[in-house]
Structure formats: structure tokens, C-alpha cells
Amino acid sequence: MSEPNIYQPFLMRIDKITEEAPLVKTFKLVFVNDEEGKKFQFKAGQFGEYSVFGEGECTLCIASPPTRPGYIECTFRQAGRVTGALAGKEEGEIIGFRGPYGNTFPLEQWQGKNLLFIAGGIALPPLRCVIWNALDLRDRFKEITVIYGARSVADLVYKQELEEWAKRGDLKILTTVDPGGETPDWKGEIGFVPAVLEKADPICENTVALVCGPPIMIKLTLPVLAKLGFSPENTFTTLENRMKCGIGKCGHCMVGKYFVCKDGPVFTLAQLNQLPPEY
Amino acid sequence: MIIEKKLLKQDSVEKLFAKLKADGRRILAPKAQGDEIFFEQVASASEMAKDYIQTTLSPKGAVFPRVEALFRYQMEGKDVKIENNSEPQPTVIFGLRPCDAASFAILNSVFSWDYQDSQFKSRLAQTAAITVSCSRADEYCFCTSVGGSPGDTKGSDILLTRIGSGDYLAEILTEKGKAMVTLAPELFAEAPSEDKEKYLAKVPVKFDLKKLTEKLPEAFNNNELWMEQSLRCLGCGACAFVCPACVCFDIQDESKRESGVRLRCWDSCGFSLFTAHTSGHNPRPVQSQRWRQRVMHKFSYFNDRQKYLGCVGCGRCSRKCPADMNLLEHLKAIAEAR
Ligand SMILES: Cc1cc2nc3c(=O)[nH]c(=O)nc-3n(C[C@H](O)[C@H](O)[C@H](O)COP(=O)(O)OP(=O)(O)OC[C@H]3O[C@@H](n4cnc5c(N)ncnc54)[C@H](O)[C@@H]3O)c2cc1C
Ligand code: SF4
Ligand code: SF4
Ligand code: FES
Question: Quick check: ipTM above 0.90?
Fold first, then answer.
């Protein structure tokens, strides 16, 4: 066939595996074919279809920043068939990846702005990509604030990076765990993300807010952001839907006439307000 | 768009098949299996079903198979080798209806917007359609309500219309059609001066498409409407399976030890699992929402995004629904609602 097969994945070698939390791992993936790796480009917010040959494909965001070429990372929770099979893979083994797919966070438009990141649980990966992207281009942005919460200390992902970020002087980070989820030596906040956000009282002028987390956290966080003065146009989040193709063909991810895989996964709150509440 | 008109004698069809086969093409034609009729590979025109209004399954499978390999893979130690499909065999579909022929453009609009689906495109490029226009229709047919007609030429390479003598008036419509004629020019005689219209089925327009498409965005929020319309729906997916214009698909792996295949299979928005998240959350938890998605996708979203309707009015979904859901009646009800 004259044109390339759009369903054929890149072959990726698992270079490094990090255990993040119970059932959560990060894979660092490098291209088996150097040439493919050199040509590969993506932007913050995009995702891909990761595959275990013999088991199938699953949709995961690219959790590493585009400012660090040559590899990609994904962080996943072992949830079902494919993520279960991924979890069984070892360093050196080969998996498939096709992408990058979907739209992106408009970082170019955010030059000179403050960035406020709000994440809950396993939903830090998509924001971690943007955080590193912004830190790698630190002088383009003003204040960077990260508010991240999980059920318990064990459930926090990227623990090493959280410590690393806390030590840097150029971003403000607040980590919190649900009441009862703390350990004796826990030095962070205790409480739910919306409450911690309200207490932190970040300024809304010249600031964009990025929110990713479980539906309940998002639901309770959005009113707080509105109260703090954030407009729907300056509030960004990502949507998840069951996906198969990732490229606007299979029909699985539709919300009204939109494909989450093509028109998303990144949406502003203003855009979400235009979508039907159920579809 | 008609390149030329010719006459194809009834008994020349067999000879045409022989020429097409000699040219290395596979011929798919309607073949009876009990009461059902399917497009199957035939060696001779005599194998074809004699009389049918519409086949059970559409000819969609010729360009978008029910199950197809996207690629094969082989594990070698820690390495993986991927093998892509070879070029598809040139294929002639004979005896499809004008509504079926019109559906290829709909499928193509999905497979070749943005990312180009090379496998679909090369199948389509290798496929030629010799359509036979409809001399009969039934109460399920509504091509004329969605922009088609029993003698419509859209999507066909050659359109045959059976005239009084039993021979076919042949309209050669495309370069692909011309290439087939060139294989056997002696079979295509000078066309009589007859008009095909009088041999065509009469299919009255059954609803106002403009009204339907205008009303759908509003009707979206009318939960009662969708509940009522879908009460009988079992969510079996048969309607999508027989539909020439349904494109939704699933991707699954099948493997035996070190080797396997990544498959694409037809799927249906009528299934509850179609949207089920791994967490158990399902954004479309009830059948009325799935029915709504089917109607909205075909007659509103598709229209908006792809500039096509997702339906050619072939009536198959209603003929085959085990619960006797009638799409046409439901569309009429929406278009005529005040
Ligand atoms: C844009 C996006 C980004 C995401 N990013 C992340 C991320 O960074 N990290 C993360 O952890 N998660 C992420 N997710 C969620 C992630 O995609 C799912 O958790 C993952 O797909 C689960 O796959 P699984 O195979 O393990 O689950 P399963 O539920 O076992 O299966 C999923 C697939 O298996 C097949 N399947 C299973 N059961 C059935 C059945 N009964 N009938 C038919 N088919 C079946 C289907 O092909 C199905 O799609 C993201 C999702 C989206 C949409
Ligand atoms: S064929 Fe009938 S019962 Fe089955 S999903 Fe379609 S409308 Fe529902
Ligand atoms: S929706 Fe029904 S009538 Fe329309 S093309 Fe599909 S099967 Fe035919
Ligand atoms: S995942 Fe297939 S259309 Fe979006």
C-alpha cells in the first residue's frame, strides 16, 4: 500500500519502570527505530494508543514533556486487560505506541502568564507533562503553582518529583492527602483539593488554571475556581472517554458531534459548558 | 457525468463475468442462502439470486470487511516484527442497488478525513460497482427521502437498468466503468433510445429531510421522545450490522503464542459496552441514549461534520430488526412533530 498504515504502532522498548503507587507504574519508552524517534514530535496534552501485542491497545496520555525529546513516558493504573498486561512487562521488553493524537494545551498563548495546576489522584500525568514543559522553559511564564492531592500518601504519584519540585525555588507546590490518609511524618496539607485551593487563594489575574482529576474532584473544584475569579475561558481540563482509534473514525468517543480524540482531550470550561450534559 | 450509454444483452452478463475474471478480478454478487441474500464471490452469473429487492447485508464488506487484519505481528525473543497486508485483489461488485453504491462515499468521508486510512482507500480504489437500478421497492425503502432514487447514478461505475426486452440499458459513469467496457467492447451494443425512468420503481418521498435535520438539535433534549421510540430496542446491533453506512468499529488483538493479529471489527453504538469506561462508568447507560446517538449521528452530526448523511434509505435496519423498530416511522415522527 502506497500510504502508511495509520494503525501500525511504533515499536518502543521499555527503558525504565518506576513504581509510583499501588497499581500505578511509569514506563520510560524509547523508539526501537532511531529514525522514527528523531522524527517524532508532540505537544503537551496529547495522548497515544499503547499496545501489548496479543492483548490490545489502551489510551494513555504522554506524561513526559515535549522539551525532552528522544523518549516518552506514560503513567498508568492497572485497571483492566491491557493495562494489566502492561503492568506485567519488564524493562527491555517491547510494546507498541501510536500517536501523538488529540489537541494540545495552548502553551504558546500562555507566555507571560501565571500557571495554576490542580490535580487529583492518578490524573497528575497529563499535567505533569505541562509542568515539566513549563519548567524547562521557565522564563516564559510567571508564577507556577501546583496543588496536588491524593487519597493517601501512598497514592501520590511522582513522589520523587514532588520532592524535587518542592526544593526548587521557582514554583509553589502544595500537596495534600484526604483526612486519615496521612502518615506520621507527613508534612503536607491534610484536606480535600477544593478546600486547599480555596485556602491557597491564588490570584486569578493573568492566570490560567489547569484541572485534572476524578469527576467528583473536578465537580467540587470548578465552583471554587469560579469564586476565586477564574473565567471559564481560562480554566482548562481534559476529558476521558472510551477510545479505540484515537483518530476520529471509530465513533466510540463521541460527545454530541465532537470527537474527544480529535477535538479534545483538552477543553476549556467555556467549551465544556457548550457540550450536552449527557450524550 | 455519464460517459456513454450502451445496451448490455441479458446473456452477455455471463460473458462479461468471464472477461472480468480473466482480468484478475474477483466478482461479488447477490447469492441466495435460504431466504437471505448475501454478496458472495461467484464464478458464474448463473449463481446469482434471480429476484431480490434488497440483499440482507449491504456490500459494505467489500471495502470495509466485518473483521479484518490491520496488521500481523510475530514475537522473536524480545523483538517484534510487524507485517502489513498486501494489496487487495481488484473486485467488481455486481448487482448492488443505487442506495448501496451511494454509501461508499459516506464510508470514505470517515476513513479519509484527516488521517488517511490506506487500507480502506486501497480497497475502495480496487473496487468497481456495476449497480442494477431498482424496478421494485418495498415499504421500508426511503432512498428518495434522503437524496437518492431507484435509478440514481451516485457511486456507481456502471448503472444497469433492465428494460422491456430483459436486456440492460448500461450507463457508463466513470473511468473505472469505461475500463470494464474496454475489456469486452463487443458486449456493449448501441443503446436504444429508451428512457430508463419508466422501468424504475416509484418510491414516494416519505418525510421532509430539511425539517428533520432542522428539528434534531432541539429534539436531542426531548428524553421522552427517545425513551418512547426506543422502548422495544434490544440493543442487539443488527441494525448497524446490516447498514451500508455504519462505520463504527472496534480494535481487538487475537494471538496464538508468538504470533497474532490486530483486528478491526464492525461495532455498534447500540451496544451498552460501546461507551463503557473501564471504571464501570458509562456515559450512555440506557438504550434510549444509544438510540438517540444512532439517529443524531446519522442525521445530524454526520451531516455537520462529514457533509453527508449517515443513511441512504435502504431500509435494511428496519427489515432486519428483531423488535420491529422502524427507522422510517421514527424519522417521520421527528420531522412532523410540532
Ligand atoms: C485521553 C485519555 C487519556 C488517558 N490517560 C490515562 C493515563 O495517563 N493513565 C491511566 O492510567 N489511564 C489513562 N486513561 C484511562 C485508560 O485509557 C483506561 O484505564 C484503559 O484504557 C483501560 O484499559 P484496559 O485494557 O486495561 O481496560 P479494560 O476495561 O480491560 O479494557 C479496555 C479494552 O479492552 C476490551 N474489552 C474489555 N472488556 C470488554 C468487553 N466486555 N467487551 C468488549 N471489549 C472489552 C476493549 O477493547 C476495551 O477498550 C486515559 C483515557 C483517555 C481517554
Ligand atoms: S436491530 Fe432493532 S433491536 Fe437491534 S439494536 Fe437495532 S433498533 Fe435495536
Ligand atoms: S440506517 Fe437503515 S435505512 Fe439508513 S442506510 Fe443504514 S440500514 Fe439503510
Ligand atoms: S476514539 Fe475513535 S473516534 Fe475517537
Answer: yes
